[in-house]
């Protein structure tokens, strides 16, 4: 559940996250602060950063969106997963977080397709993640 923080303060933290002139350490602190605050404004600030050139930062953006366990983040995770211009590790993390959160929120049963996916040795198989996302959204 999100904590109560004034919207302008959340946006100010989001501005730090999205400021490429700031150090990665500052930006990661801003990301984790937004994750802890939660809510739609925080998710919007995090989502806006997926155009950043740092694959490491974008991987953590996806991870934090998943940790927030908020269905408002689902469209952003789907967009990142489907975006072939994103680095594979970023898309992979978005897919994993999408998969995990969908089951958390929908209490879905594991289907044969998910069992097949879990048996794959290539956990970065984007096609499998795309198939899963189409079946669970």
List the topology elements.
Layout lengths: L6 H11 L6 H14 L2 H8 L7 H13 L6 H9 L5 H19 L5 H8 L6 H11 L1
Helix pairs in contact: 1-2, 1-3, 2-3, 2-4, 4-6, 5-6, 6-8
Could you say what the CATH architecture is? Alpha Horseshoe
The named CATH superfamily: Leucine-rich Repeat Variant
Oligomer description: single chain
The helix-and-strand class reads mainly alpha
Number of helices: 8
Shape: globular
In total, the number of strands is 0
**What is the terminal-to-terminal distance?**
22 Å
Taking all residues together, what is the mean pLDDT?
83
Give the domain tally: 1
- Contiguous runs where pLDDT drops below 50 for at least 5 residues: 117-124
Could you tell me the CATH topology label. Answer: Leucine-rich Repeat Variant
Radius of gyration: 15 Å
Query: CATH class, please?
Result: Mainly Alpha
* Secondary-structure element series: HHHHHHHH
Strand content: under 5%
Helicity, in percent? 55-70%
